[in-house]
Design brief:
The protein is an alpha/beta fold and about 325 residues long. The strands form 2 sheets. It has a 6-stranded mixed sheet, with helices on both faces. The chain has a 5-stranded parallel sheet with strand order 3-2-1-4-11, with helices on both faces. The two termini are about 20 Å apart. It is globular and about 65 Å long. The chain is about 45% helix and about 15% strand. The longest helix is centred in the middle third of the chain and has 19 residues. The chain is built from 13 helices and 11 strands. It folds into 2 domains: about 170 residues, Rossmann fold; about 150 residues, Isocitrate/Isopropylmalate dehydrogenase-like (Rossmann fold, 3-Layer(aba) Sandwich), CATH 3.40.50.10750.
Length: about 325
């Protein structure tokens, strides 16, 4: 069974509520009906019910199983406004400004507030808004997970080489969000990605902190950053199986790992790969995708207190459905 199909099966085991704010995009309307019909989640879509039902009818879909909430007229608006003012008190946000954010056309702040307050388990957006806009609303309203300051991303790399990772599937991070994380951020990315590995692959992570050096084979400030991140990650999650600094071959190939990092519990058998910066991460996942014919599932946003995921503006209806299933699994905890 394909990894995405496995994720969908898991999503159905404990249905979560997912909010889709971008009802002004026809793909979101179609996806909302699909998600509900496929029993992947309870779906809330934000917008005017009368207008959305007309659009849905024109698209040949029904919103009968979808809950439609209009931020402008919702009974939730007043309480959300009070909460947003309290959250942004230090920034001097007025109540009028809070209401304007919550009733803005993009619906991003209202969706984020639904997730914060538990009225939805997670949100999916980005079909019509930039990554910056989606993450800004999530960061300001939902915030980061306890003990974390870093929001990052993970790709689930489905390769054709079953001896790597977990039957060919590996977690790659961070390949989409943080250009040059310092040691603290890199450690938090490692801990978040380990949790994602457990959530999506159902196994404990074996985390490799990558570098161009293995166990002191080279000396450089960049290697020192990885070593410092390793130390911080071990303090944040003492139970975590993590090692570094490791070159990619030492992380993945048992013979190389045994030779370069003897005694390591990770070297040669890593299933979770942490790149030292976004240059390495973005280049690395795209090379594996294009040269090795791997499928990159993601990016999946991690490190937030509650899940929000960002889409490509070129996404398909199927992409929205899949990312919603992923978000539902994250919402399960």
């Amino acid at each position: 069974m394909h990894l995405v199909d496995q994720i969908k099966v898991k999503a159905r085991t404990a249905l979560q509520t997912i909010v889709l704010p971008e009802s002004y995009d026809e793909r979101m309307i179609e996806a909302s009906a699909r998600i509900a019909a496929d029993k992947l989640a309870h779906v809330i879509i934000l917008g005017n019910a009368e207008q959305l039902n007309v659009k849905a009818s024109g698209l040949g879909v029904s919103l009968a199983e979808v809950t439609v909430v209009d931020p402008k007229t919702s009974d939730l608006l007043a309480g959300y406004a009070d909460e947003l003012v309290a959250i942004r008190k230090k920034k001097g946000l007025s109540r009028a400004e809070a209401i304007a954010l919550l009733t803005a056309k993009d619906n991003l702040y209202f969706a984020a507030m639904m997730v914060r307050k538990g009225d939805a388990g997670g949100a999916v957006a980005g079909a019509d808004n930039t990554t910056g806009d989606v993450l800004r609303a999530a960061f300001q309203v939902i915030g980061t997970a306890p003990g974390m300051k870093t929001v990052s991303s993970v790709f689930l790399m489905v390769t054709k080489t079953p001896e790597f990772g977990e039957n060919g599937v590996l977690c790659f991070a961070d390949c989409a969000v943080n250009p040059n994380p310092d040691a603290q951020a890199l450690a938090e990315i490692a801990v978040s990605t380990a949790a994602s590995c457990k959530s999506f692959l159902g196994v404990d992570a074996r985390v490799a902190m990558l570098s161009f050096s293995t166990k002191g084979s080279a000396s450089h400030d960049d290697c020192d950053k990885v070593l410092k991140a390793l130390s911080i990650a071990r303090e944040l999650a003492p139970e975590l199986s993590i090692d570094g600094e490791l070159q990619a071959d030492a992380a993945l190939i048992p013979k190389v790992g045994d030779k370069k990092a003897p005694g390591s519990t990770v070297a040669g058998k890593a299933n979770t790969i942490i790149f030292p910066d976004l240059d390495a991460g973005n280049i690395g996942y795209k090379l594996v995708e294009r040269l090795a014919g791997a499928e990159a599932v993601g990016p999946i946003i991690q490190g937030l207190a509650k899940p929000v995921n960002d889409l490509s503006r070129g996404c398909s209806v199927e992409d929205i459905v899949n990312v919603s299933a992923i978000t539902a699994v994250q919402a399960q905890g």
